[in-house]
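Journal club prep, notes for RB
We'll compare a predicted complex against what the paper describes. Inputs for the S-adenosyl-L-homocysteine case:
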Amino acid sequence: MDHLPIFLDVKGKKVLVDGGNTPAARRVERALSAGAIVHVFCPNMSDEFRTLREHPRVVHHLRAPEPADFEDCVVAYGASEIGARDQRLYEMAKAAKVLVNVADVTKYCDFITPSVVDRSPLVVAISSGGNAPVIARILRARIEVMLPAAYGRLAAFVGGFRETVMAKLTTTESRRRFWENTIEGQVGDHFLAGDETKASARLLEDLDAAVTGAKSAQIGEVFLVGAGPGDPDLLTFRALHIMQRADVVLFDRLVSDEIMTLVRRDAERVYVGKAPQQHAMVQEEISELMVELAQQGKRVLRLKGGDPFIFGRGGEELELLAKHKIPFQVIPGITAASGCASYAGIPLTHRDHAQSCVLITAHGREGILDLDWERLVRPDQTVVVYMGLGSVGILSEQFIKRGLDRTTPAAVVDNGTRTSQRVVTGDLGNIADRVVESGIKGPALIIIGSVVSLRDELKWFADSDKDSHQMSLQAKDSL
Ligand code: SAH
């Protein structure tokens, strides 16, 4: 290690910042957030100081710093961006034995400023030893993603019980184990889900159990998580956090392999199928399995394609859990309509085309087309059909029969948002044939409405090669 990592207490102490531009503003900000009294030296504070200028702990001096300014000062930052002035600052700081850092001038630095992830009281500081600040910043961005915003509050919450735990659990080992279980377990879950009362009660219960050596009757929890339409980058932070902490994961066909690689490696995996007409497990069995696993104390991840509450039977799966009083949480995902439309360059609403958008499925409980046609054939409306690939012919026929023009644009997005995405476009009159010609297999979404015509202009995502190949074959065929 080239540097000694320390966190310095500067609360109520004097920090000097020389400069009035962006680098100075960043240093003032950080010193203020650590509670320092910050003396800023510059004739003009730039716009970056907009909110800092009036801060009660900022003292503004129009002149350059002088030796007397270093008295009682703990840290001095040079950020004037003027070589001679920086050098002078460094010399004065050295003479006064004050820690000094001049922005971007290594030889004038006693210390380096790390990249920081602030979840106060939890703070992560990253340094590349001055070799590659960009790597430190990239790493910082990754850690930002990993640490839920509420982690800071969790640290403060846990801190509030430190003494109680210290008094009851006397060995370091027992305390370490207790805290690991607490933070990674249900106490942490309750807290991060916003229920501090439950978190406190559970923590005290667990503490009693740890003291008496009794195993608390741990009941697990189920997380119903939307995994989005396929592109792993479309997962939410929360989905990712839960995926990395699951004991067991129940997943189905719609969850892409790339997403499955993000689930904690040690988690047990249960495939619960659900290809059309060949359910590996029927709905009731899935729900029963979740109840059973949660009753064993497991943290159960039920991972679903898209959003669990949009044609995902999420509600049905939760009913049994609710009946058995198994705690659960629902994490939304990007639904196929949203994902496919964006990646196909088809806005679902547009002031010139559609003022409403209806999501329907052509695959009801009974598997028959039993739709409210009057509501579906309105003008200025986009209709999105889930699970409709097999019935695209009968659907488009019905749309025409019930009143939509056969030239109404329509698109079928296959494997939307994935690298294998293919989009077939046409109109109600020809879309079924085009789908057959393309040979697409699904999962696929049908979009009907004049918004589809915007794709020519708004297409941005490169569809799979297969698509263009198919298109060129089609073009040849039609010659
Ligand atoms: N809960 C899911 C939908 C499950 S129903 C969601 O919110 O997206 C399954 C149907 O979703 C499929 O038949 C298909 O119509 C659609 N679908 C899901 N993922 C898709 C994808 N990547 N591309 C196209 N359609 C998709």
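Talking point for the session: Residues 196-212 form the longest helix (17 residues).
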